[in-house]
Amino acid sequence: MRKEGRTTKKNDIEKLSDAQIVELVLSDLNAYRYIIGRYEEKLLRYIRRILYVNKEDAEDILQEVFVKAYRNINSYNRKYKFSSWIYRIAHNEAVSFLRKKNNKFDTVQDDEIFDKIPSKSNIEDDFLTDLKGLEVRNILERLEKKYRDVLILRYFEQMEYNEISDALRIPSGTVASLINRGKKKFKILVQKYGKNI
């Protein structure tokens, strides 16, 4: 019977919105584990996608993200989506990591991160659907960081333009412009390097 109660409680937590979980955390810091449970896998994947680091480095960065979010949970501004706020922290920690490493970091050897861009991505007639994961990663790596960041958030993390705007602290119009230009540049790189990588 206890097991059933635990399952019910877990299901109840999964039904809560991020804002409701934040409210729980504010009254009971032990509830922070629910935020970790909800975002651990997503943020780890995001960090590895934007940095191309090994799993251990990504986990170290992720730990810093959760520590920083925990320390600053009281300053979370509820007018923004919580996901945008925590992705912003992840983005900042990734930038800090790059500064510390002076852009000298280990390249990820496993290709499972970029199996394929989801077909929902609608990037120029789905021209990416046949590319292998390694090709996608190598082509994304050739893009300027500003384009790579927005494309990853939009097409891999499935964020809306306003969420990307909040996460990166740039206007929505700039997000739209960067995505549009990034898709064009990506398509050019696919045509130029796609078969030679």
Structure described in brief:
The chain has helices at about 1-15, 20-25, 30-50, 55-70, 80-100, 135-140, 145-155, 160-170, 170-195. By secondary structure, it is mainly alpha-helical. Helix 3 packs across helix 4, helix 4 (about 55-70) crosses helix 5 (about 80-100) and helix 8 packs across helix 9.
Structure, explained:
This protein is an all-alpha fold. It folds into two domains: 12-110, RNA polymerase sigma factor, region 2, helix turn helix motif (Rna Polymerase Sigma Factor, Chain: A); 111-197, Winged helix-like DNA-binding domain superfamily/Winged helix DNA-binding domain (Arc Repressor Mutant, subunit A, Orthogonal Bundle), CATH 1.10.10. It has nine helices and no strands. It has helices at 2-15, 18-27, 32-51, 55-71, 82-101, 133-142, 145-156, 161-168, 172-193. Helix 5 (82-101) crosses helix 8 and helix 8 packs across helix 9. The N and C termini lie far apart (56 Å).
